[in-house]
Specification:
The protein has 205 residues and is mainly beta. It has 1 helix and 8 strands; from the N terminus they run E-H-E-E-E-E-E-E-E. A hairpin with a 2-residue loop joins strand 2 and strand 3.
């Protein structure tokens, strides 16, 4: 699912509950009372029945986190562009992979995000450029069927606004870093959004 401007986003999640039930019945050993005309009756010994040990599925055991890869589709609002009616969003994709580290599944990835747009008018031009680098770090956790990606996305970059008019030239640079803590159920199309940004999860498996 690709992001579109002014579209509504929902959230979905999956909850699977597993019930383990065990039942054991004990049947008493009933023997008739012997009399003088009967031989002694040896008491019967019940054959022991092994009690099954329940298998506990824990975090990081037999789940879809193992070998997972995908992309985070990112949409970030570009304020100086929106202010003059240019395309308001920078859109890009951040690829990521999940690697096993013992009992943990580590999420790592990153990639660039670029934006460039120009407003041409009778008085001159208004140009906005944005270049960012993104990194993704975190964990894939949960039991089979209810895995979750808990990740931190760091966005670091530079922005430049250039104004050119008759007899005027202005350059307005900006640089900064922002970090977002996000959580996604392991479902293709899962979304997270906030003021000025939105992410959609795309899975390769």
């Amino acid at each position: 699912m690709k992001l579109k401007k002014n579209s509504g986003w929902g959230k979905s999640g999956v909850i699977i509950v597993v019930f383990l039930m065990m039942a054991c019945s004990l049947i008493p050993n009933l023997s008739p009372t012997p009399n003088s005309s009967q031989l002694p009756i040896e008491p019967s010994t019940p054959t022991p029945t092994p009690t099954p040990t329940p298998t506990i599925i824990g975090v990081g055991v037999s789940n879809r986190c193992n070998g997972l890869s995908g992309e985070l589709e990112m949409m970030v609002i570009v304020g100086p562009a929106e202010a003059v009616g240019l395309e308001p969003f920078a859109v890009g994709e951040i690829p990521f992979t999940v690697v096993s580290d013992g009992e943990f599944y580590i999420v790592q990835g990153g990639g660039p995000l670029s934006y460039h747009d120009v407003l041409g008018a009778t008085w001159g031009t208004y140009t906005v450029s944005l270049d960012m680098e993104t990194t993704v770090e975190g964990e894939c956790v949960g039991i089979e069927g209810s895995e979750v990606l808990n990740i931190a996305v760091e966005m670091s970059g530079e922005q430049m606004v250039e104004v050119r008019a008759d007899g005027f030239q202005g350059d307005y640079p900006w640089a900064g870093t922002q970090e977002l803590d996000l959580s996604f159920p392991l479902e293709d199309g899962a979304m997270a959004e906030g003021t000025g940004w939105a992410f959609v999860l795309h899975l390769n498996q």
